[in-house]
Amino acid sequence: MDSETTVLAERDDLRVVGGYPGANATDVTMEDDRTVTLAPDPRDAGHEWFFYWNVTVESDAERTVDVSFDREVVGPWGPAVSRDRRTWSWLGSDAADDHRGFRYEFGAGERTAFAFSVPYVRADFERWWTSVEQHERVHRQTLTTTANGRPVPLVQIGDLTADTHVLGACRHHACESPASYALEGWLGALAADPPSEWCAHVVPLVDLDGVYRGDQGKSRLPHDHNRDYGRSNGVLDDIEPLYPTTAAIKRYVRNIDGEVALALDFHSPYKWGDPHDRVFFACSPEDATAADRRFARFLDEACDRTDDAMAFAADAGFAEPGGRSAGTTFTAFLDRAGATSSRTLEVPYFGTEGNRATPDRWRGLGRATDRATRQFVAPIE
């Protein structure tokens, strides 16, 4: 069952718990009943180390607990914290001496979850879905079933018979949860006013098994979900992908009848530092097309007009190589499939003091993306 938990370490009346959806920790030790040491678990990622972690601590007595790591995996606003693993906030920078640990004052009988960033798992998506499923022109299908037997949701919003289409995806890398909040904001705005002349087709949780397990997902061996869309020479797209979900996405895209005006893949970048503290498209400035730049300009304007949206600046909106048609990514595949613009949108884990990331501001970025999408897809008169 998805609700199972596992005691990772226990000392007297203090316990560290994992095993629930999104949990991740390894090498958990307790020197005493006030000190916990742990590390992110890379599992089958190709990295020797990666930064995502997520645990719950239970204390039967009042006490202050110090949690420490051997590397910098505590963000500038402290860890994400939640009493119910549904509603999250930042613990605060004053709870952390540096990026290698934090302290927390427990009340008697308190059970509190902590994570590198605010998690987003299947249950969060399902709660969102119940808020929109009765809307007109909002549809849901099962795209496929994962290797572990989980049905992968596909959301369709708009006119299914339209000649123009928008493609969206998220969580090709399982740990990149801020991207899901931005996607939720985008989908929510689309569902509130479904387009009548085009249709959006979105896979919200591509690596669904990895999201459940709490995997890093990035650089999964032998390759991750976002490197599963064909060979790098851009020719052999008929090679069967490794993962059922990416194979199903490729089949689905090939069956779309009409123009793909836009393809967006929502990701989160590295933990912090420039450009990872800001919203950007994974594309070097010299590789950005005129269509890419037009969409970036619309997003810049939309962020300025959207309450509680993370800021985006079009003049600094392209950073890092993102690959075009020769790549093996989702956006490269959609580029080969003829999408007018096919880009990865990077949603930061933390942001900056003047552009701080929170679930509401990630969703605001998604609502701004909806505005930009409608403007981009609208016929040029």
Structural overview:
The protein has about 375 residues and is an alpha+beta fold. It folds into 2 domains: about 5-115, Immunoglobulin-like (Sandwich); about 120-375, Aminopeptidase. It contains 7 helices and 20 strands. It has helices at about 120-130, 175-190, 210-215, 245-255, 290-305, 330-335, 360-375; strands at about 5-10, 15-20, 25-30, 35-40, 55-60, 65-70, 80, 90, 100-105, 110-115, 140-145, 150-160, 165-170, 200-205, 260-265, 280, 320, 340-345, 350, 355. The radius of gyration is 21 Å and the shape is globular.
Helices, strands, pairings?
Layout lengths: L5 E6 L2 E5 L7 E7 L2 E5 L14 E6 L3 E6 L11 E3 L6 E2 L10 E6 L3 E6 L6 H11 L5 E8 L5 E8 L5 E7 L6 H16 L6 E5 L4 H6 L30 H11 L4 E9 L12 E3 L7 H16 L12 E2 L10 H7 L4 E6 L4 E2 L2 E2 L2 H19 L4
Parallel strand pairs: 4-6, 13-14, 13-15, 15-18, 16-17
Antiparallel strand pairs: 1-2, 2-5, 3-4, 5-10, 6-9, 7-8, 7-10, 11-12, 12-14, 16-18, 19-20
Round the Cα radius of gyration to an integer and report it: 21 Å
What is the CATH topology classification name of the largest domain?
Aminopeptidase
% residues in beta strands:
25-35%
**In what order do the strands lie side by side in the largest sheet?**
11-12-14-13-15-18-16-17
- As residue ranges, the low-confidence spans are none
Summarize the helix and strand pattern as letters. EEEEEEEEEEHEEEHEHHEEHEHEEEH
The major β-sheet equals: 8 strands, mixed
Could you estimate the helical fraction of the residues in percent? 10-25%
Total individual domains: 2
Distance between the termini: 54 Å
